[in-house]
Amino acid sequence: MSRSEIEHLYRAVMPAVRHALAHHDGFRAFGAVLGEDGNVARIEPRPDLHDGGPSGHVLAVHAAVQSVVAAQRIAAACVCTEIELEADDVGDEPDGVRIHLEDADSEVIDVLVPFRRDDAGEVEYGEIVGQEAERKLMPRRPADEGPPE
Fold first, then answer.
1. In this structure, how many other beta carbons lie within 10 angstroms of the beta carbon of residue 108?
2. Which of 26, 68, 79, 118 is deepest in the core (most CB within 10 A)?
3. Which helix (H) or strand (E) holds 13?
4. Considering its fold, how many domains does the chain have in total?
5. Residue 146: its pLDDT value, please?
6. C-beta of residue 27 within 8 angstroms of C-beta of residue 21
């Protein structure tokens, strides 16, 4: 069940990531949650709650997602950020997107999506890599609790 929730949320946010990269010169970090009802909601922090700089915005996105998780029954949550990748992470692609995904049961993963722009400005994607990550957004649901019926 956990894997499908994370995959569902990943598939829901990727079109927004691809659109932002193709039609803008990148994007500001954003979050999303998958409710236990199967609906996905994009999460943006209120602009007046952070300093407006990139790092302040990322922290505000994390806080906004954590706030939603604390107030609602959420199956999975994520934060999408544009990053510079190390060559060792995914080859020689210098730019990327990190999609940090967590589910309520156990799984936490960072999906790294490398990309570069060709001479015409078109986005070319490299090989997507998933790696284990630390929990940041939502508490782990106790094993005996299980999802509601």
1. 18
2. 79
3. helix 2-23
4. 1
5. 54
6. yes
- Is residue 142 in a domain? no
Residue 137: CB atoms within 10 A of its CB come to: 21
The two three-digit tokens of residue 103, written as one number: 């589910």
- DSSP secondary structure, 37-102, as one string: TS-EEEE---GGGS-SSHHHHHHHHHHHHHHHHHHS-EEEEEEEEEEEPPHHHHSS--EEEEEEEE
pLDDT tens string, the chain, 149 residues long: the values are 357 899 999 999 999 999 999 887 777 899 999 999 999 999 988 776 666 677 788 889 999 999 999 999 999 999 999 988 776 554 555 689 999 999 988 889 999 999 888 888 888 888 899 999 999 999 877 665 555 55
Q: Which amino acid is at 10?
A: Y
Rg of the chain on CA atoms, in Å: 16
pTM to 2 decimal places: 0.85
Q: Which domain holds residue 10?
A: 2-132
Structure tokens belonging to residue 79: 């934060």
- Inside any domain, residue 57: yes
